[in-house]
Amino acid sequence: MPDTLEPGNGGRYPGDMEKRVIALEHIAQTTGATLERLERRFEAIDRRFEAIDRRFENMDRRMDSMMRKQRADFRWLLGLILAQTGALLGVMAHGFHWL
Known about the structure:
Helix content: over 70%
Number of strands: 0
Order of helices and strands: H
Largest sheet: none
Low-confidence stretches: none
Structural class: mainly alpha
Shape: rod-shaped
C-alpha cells in the first residue's frame, strides 16, 4: 500500500500540499496575533468589571449605613408612639377615674 504522503511527481510534497502548508502557517501566525488581541480585550473588560464591582461594594456600604439609620429612626419613633399612647391612656384613666 503506498504512503499517502509520497510525492507523485517527484516533488517534496504531493500535489498542492505546499500551498496547504503555507495557508496553515499563515493561519497559525494570524491566530497568534488574534489571541493576543483577544487577551488584551479580556484584560480591559476584567478591569472594567473590577471597577463596577468596587462601585457596587461602595453602594452596598452606603445602603447598609442607611438601613442602620432607618432602623434606629424607626425604633425611636416606635418608642415615642408607645410613650404617647401610654401617656394618653394614663390621662384617660385619670379622667374617667379608673385609677
